Amino acid sequence: MAQAQGLGKKYIKAFLKGFFVAVPVTVTFLDRVACVARVEGASMQPSLNPGGRQASDVVLLNHWSIRNYDVQRGDIVSLVCL
């Protein structure tokens, strides 16, 4: 029984160590590099949601290009007001 408790503490410690490393890395990645977003509605047709279907499209928003001013004609830009 004592071995099981020691083993449980070992796994909890390893989980917490991984958790406290993974969360900041994930948040930084989603904030600075890229994130996934869902596009709904007819405002982006026919490029996104073609044919008026009810399902939404999933897109990758590239934050890195915007930070480096690497926007070119024909790119779709998403703006968020905070």
UniProtKB/TrEMBL annotation:
Coiled-coil portions: none
Location in or out of the cell: Membrane
Any GO CC annotation of this UniProt entry: mitochondrial inner membrane peptidase complex
GO MF term set: serine-type endopeptidase activity
GO biological process: protein processing involved in protein targeting to mitochondrion; signal peptide processing
Keywords: Hydrolase, Membrane, Protease, Transmembrane, Transmembrane helix
Bilayer topology term: Single-pass membrane protein
Keyword Transcription: no
InterPro entries, A to Z: IMP2, LexA/Signal_pep-like_sf, Peptidase_S26
Record carries keyword Nucleotide-binding: no
Predominant location: membrane
Name the UniProt record assigns to this protein: Inner mitochondrial membrane peptidase subunit 2
Source species of the chain: Cyanistes caeruleus
Highest classification ranks of the organism: Eukaryota, Metazoa, Chordata, Craniata, Vertebrata
Gene encoding the protein: IMMP2L
